[in-house]
Design goal:
There is one protein chain. Helix content is 66%, strand content 3%. The protein has ten helices and two strands. The two termini are 28 Å apart.
Length: 277
């Protein structure tokens, strides 16, 4: 009887914390988002000296209250899943832990409370809370497109690096140390900065031939920007043509992972059979 009550309690807690299909779950997650945004604003204002000198005590108390609440929430998230390790070592599990640690670490190392801005990553939960699972699916397509095009992008970047070495060396021979190009590595640095259209302006060519070469590099730079974009866009287009299942908004009771596909029978993370599949 005790085990059955404990199981029901865990299921109810899981629905509130991980689920957004119930009213209580929506209220919990929206409240959590408000707390996250509030804590980030507090951390930012605390870094402004004029605000901190006037409201330091208020900022400190608020930060402690938020930290304690997040610590309790983190513990409850571990308790209500059947396999806590799956959650603890998941992306959200690590982010949730990082969001609670800075204030405690500030006991030993000063100013680490500013690392609380890591809590901004928790706002990614908004994709589930507002039932914008469609955007999660789209982000998965983008990640898949980047993975599929990584070899092409690597070859392209390697090719750009070779061009930078060649053109940087040529610029070194044209300008020389007397015009600020003191070494080939420094000239390569200038070429990369120019090729990526950043243009810090700390080194500039002085000779007419050097300026012509710099103009050519700038024009090449604009063309280079379009290449990786085209590679990823082509892969993304191919990914969107794939047949996709309907999306849903739920989570695995075993590990807490989001369930995205409505026709899923097993969790994509831990393999647990889904009772509401």
């Amino acid at each position: 009887m005790s085990d059955q009550l404990n199981s029901k309690w865990k299921i109810k807690l899981h629905e509130v914390i991980y689920g957004t299909h119930t009213r209580a779950g929506k209220v919990f997650d929206i409240t959590l988002l408000i707390a996250i945004i509030y804590s980030i604003v507090i951390v930012m204002l605390e870094s402004v000296e004029s605000f901190d000198s006037k409201y330091h005590s208020y900022f400190n108390i608020s930060e402690w209250v938020i930290t304690i609440l997040f610590s309790i929430e983190y513990i409850l998230r571990i308790i209500c899943v059947n396999q806590p390790k799956k959650y603890i070592f998941s992306f959200y599990g690590i982010v949730d832990l990082l969001s609670t640690l800075p204030k405690y670490i500030s006991f030993f190392i000063l100013d680490t409370q500013f690392l609380s801005v890591f809590r901004a990553l928790r706002l990614l939960r908004v994709f589930r809370i507002l039932k914008l699972i469609r955007f999660v699916g789209e982000s998965n397509k983008l990640i898949r497109a980047i993975k599929n095009s990584r070899s092409k992008i690597f070859i392209f970047i390697f090719f750009v690096f070779i061009i930078s070495i060649i053109l940087g060396t040529v610029m070194y021979l044209i300008e020389g140390p007397e015009n600020g190009f003191k070494s080939i590595p420094q000239s390569i640095y200038w070429c990369i900065v120019t090729l990526t259209t950043v243009g810090f302006g700390d080194i500039t060519p002085q000779t007419a031939l050097g300026q012509v070469l710099a103009t050519i590099i700038m024009i090449i730079g604009y063309g280079i920007i379009a290449v990786p974009t085209g590679i990823v866009s082509a892969e993304y287009t191919a990914a969107t043509k794939d047949k996709t299942s309907n999306l849903k908004n739920s989570s695995c009771q075993n590990c807490g992972a989001d369930i995205i596909l409505s026709d899923a029978s097993y969790c994509r993370k831990c393999g647990n059979k889904l009772t509401n599949a």
